[in-house]
Write a structure and sequence with these properties.
Elements: H1 18-30, E1 37-39, E2 44-47, E3 53-69, E4 78-92, E5 95-102, E6 112-121, E7 124-131, H2 137-140, E8 166-175, E9 178-186, E10 198-210, E11 214-226, E12 234-238, E13 248-253, E14 261-272, E15 275-286, E16 290-292, H3 294-301, E17 315-317, E18 320-332, E19 340-341, E20 346-347, E21 361-373, E22 380-391, E23 396-407, E24 415-424
Antiparallel strand pairs: 1-2, 2-3, 3-4, 3-24, 4-5, 5-6, 6-7, 7-8, 8-9, 9-10, 10-11, 11-14, 12-13, 14-15, 15-18, 16-17, 18-21, 19-20, 21-22, 22-23, 23-24
């Protein structure tokens, strides 16, 4: 799909990854300190003898294969490094840092993910830098822990397309049985052009039940974005047949017009023994007041406009109201239990007990996901998925998803068989 905003192009100068350079400095420098302590359990960590400095090195590799059953659209069946990250984190006196580079996302700043400095405050921490706004349970679930290959439409995979990571300041913490997070941000990340757009997001999660066998989670979140000079277009887009497959534009607010975009969401999730479910419902309002020619409308949305357009001005796009929701669940057929991460307000993957076939854990999964523009007739996309996950151990997982796509606007029903082999440490 074309965009109404010019792309930011990196210059010809090439730099080594800052995360690797910093990792080398810290880890090599630690060898010259006196009585430094090195740990290798589950990764590599070095702590100074006085405890004032530390550095740990982690990473993840997610390697995917996509096979498509094409319909109207004709995507390419292929392989892909979905993620290839190195994560350096630690502390300097009372301050913490995280520096994460995803080589699958690009070199230097284009591959930056979490890159921030933090300090403890109240029962949480203040973060300054680039990180995810607190506005979606699925978004705040680690990619190492997600149930299906991709997150649902209520996340940076759909509703917050292109705005998954933002730069700003925020606070997150746990108070009793509540998880809270707030962030004020510039509408950019390290890979996008500098702009004057601003936004804010906040989330409240409540876990009234959380023990070794059962968890009940309820939550709500909001997000507000006000684009301005040089801001990217704000879009909602549904990858209804999985990653690298066709996508359907659901809503568009051009970044140079300065129209606001806001979302409000509700969350309900829980686990009981080997069973787990999760659901979110989101209402999004895209302020709009612009015209597109009929050719531009079809180029952006994939089909001719389902309404009359003015012969002189074109197709008028007014405020757009978007609704998206999903429900997903799983059954650990080998009996393991998904634990709850109070700090994130989201679920972890189950840890294999070693009693299943090939010594691992097995999980059956399913999801139904939908997104709709309520102001443009039949502008809706849906996705139904079933899958199986095999946990070879705590660090290695194999995922298989069968995705049935349904684009009601264009009539496309492309399907995908997706396979992932992942390792994280």
């Amino acid at each position: 799909m074309s965009t109404l905003t010019p792309l930011y192009r990196m210059g010809p100068i090439s730099m080594a990854s800052p995360s690797l350079l910093l990792a080398g400095v810290l880890l090599s420098g630690a060898t010259t300190s006196l009585a430094d302590e090195a740990e290798t359990k589950g990764g590599l960590k070095i702590t100074s003898d006085d405890g004032n400095f530390s550095a740990s090195l982690g990473g993840r590799i997610h390697f995917d294969t996509y096979l498509f059953d094409s319909d109207i659209e004709d995507p390419v069946s292929t392989t892909d490094f979905r993620r290839a990250r190195i994560t350096l984190k630690g502390k300097v006196y009372d301050w913490k840092y995280v520096l994460e580079q995803d080589f699958a996302g690009g070199t230097t700043s284009r591959g930056f993910r979490d890159v921030f400095i933090a300090r403890e405050f109240l029962n949480g921490e203040v973060r300054i830098g680039q990180f995810k706004p607190f506005r979606s349970m699925s978004e705040l679930t680690s990619s190492n822990e997600i149930t299906m290959l991709e997150r649902p439409f209520s996340s940076g995979t759909g509703l917050y397309e292109g705005f998954q990571f933002q730069q700003g300041i925020g606070w997150t913490g746990v108070l009793d049985c509540y998880t809270l997070g707030f962030m004020a941000f510039n509408l950019r990340n390290a890979s996008t052009v500098r702009n004057e757009g601003v936004g804010a997001a906040g989330r409240l999660a409540w876990h009234p039940i959380n023990n070794d066998y059962a968890t009940l989670h309820l939550g709500t979140a909001f997000s507000f974005a006000n684009p301005n000079l040089n801001s990217k277009d704000i879009i909602a887009e549904a990858d209804y047949a999985g990653r690298r497959g066709p996508s359907q534009l659901i809503a568009l607010s051009p970044g140079d017009l300065g129209d606001d975009v806001s979302t409000v969401s509700l969350e309900l999730a829980g686990s009981y023994g080997p069973l787990y479910f999760q659901s979110e419902f989101v209402v999004a309002d895209y302020d709009a007041d612009y015209y597109l020619s009929e050719l531009d409308f079809e180029d952006e949305f994939g089909a001719p406009p389902p309404f009359l357009c003015d012969p002189d001005f074109g197709c008028y796009i007014d405020d757009q109201h978007v609704r998206t929701w999903y429900i997903q669940g799983s059954w650990m057929i080998t009996g393991e239990h998904k634990t709850y991460n109070e700090k994130r307000g989201a679920f972890n993957s189950a840890k294999p007990s070693g009693k299943g076939l090939w010594g691992g854990a097995w999980e059956l999964t399913a999801r139904y996901d939908t997104m709709q523009n309520r102001d443009i007739y039949k502008l809706e996309a849906n996705s139904a998925q079933v899958g199986v996950n095999y946990y070879a151990n705590r660090n290695v997982r194999v995922m298989l998803n069968l995705i049935f796509g349904d684009d009601e606007f264009t009539g496309d029903n492309t399907n995908q068989l997706g396979l992932r082999v992942q390792m994280a440490w």
